[in-house]
Amino acid sequence: MKPATRPGRQNQRGFALLIVLWAMVMLSFVATRVTASGHGAVLVAANLRNAAVLEAAADGAVQEAIFRMLDTSPARWRPDGRTRTLPMPRGEILLRLDDQAGKVNPNLASVELLTALLRQSAMAAARRV
Question: Are residues 79 and 104 in the same domain?
Fold first, then answer.
C-alpha cells in the first residue's frame, strides 16, 4: 500500500530551497549596497579631510608671506613677482607676491586715466600687428 500524501505535495518539492536561495540573493544584494555606500562615505570623508589640509596649508603660506614682507631685514620678501617655495610637511607650496599698486581699478579710475589706458593698449596692440 502507498503512504498517504497530501494532494499537491509533489508539486512543492524544492520550493523551500528556492525561497531560501532567493532570500540569500537579496541579503547579499543588500550587503553589497551597504558596503558600496560605506566606501563612498569613506571617499567623501577623505576628500573633505584633504581639502581642509590644503586650505590650512594655503592659509599658512599667506601668513608666512605677510610675516616675511613685514620683516625689516634685507632678507625681507618684496612683491617682485618671483616665485618662492615654502616647504611643508607633505610637500611644498609655490607662491608669488605681486605689487597691486600699479593696477587700475576701473570702478575708481577717472575718465582721463581710463582714456589714456585704452589709448596705450590700442597703440600696443597696433604695434604687435
Answer: no
Q: DSSP assignment of 85-106, as one string?
A: EEEETTEEEEEEEE--TTS--T
51 and 73, same structural domain?
yes
pLDDT computed for residue 66 by the predictor = 94
Lookup: cell for 112 = 582721463
State the average pLDDT over residues 99-122: 90
- Same domain for 27 and 90, yes or no, is yes
Q: Are 112 and 92 in contact (CB under 8 A)?
A: no
Which is more confidently placed, 95 or 13? 95
User: What is the count of structural domains for the chain?
Assistant: 2
What is the span of the domain harbouring residue 25? Answer: 20-98
Nine cell digits for residue 21? 536561495
3-class secondary structure, 75: coil
Distance, CA of 23 to CA of 127 (rounded, Å): 79
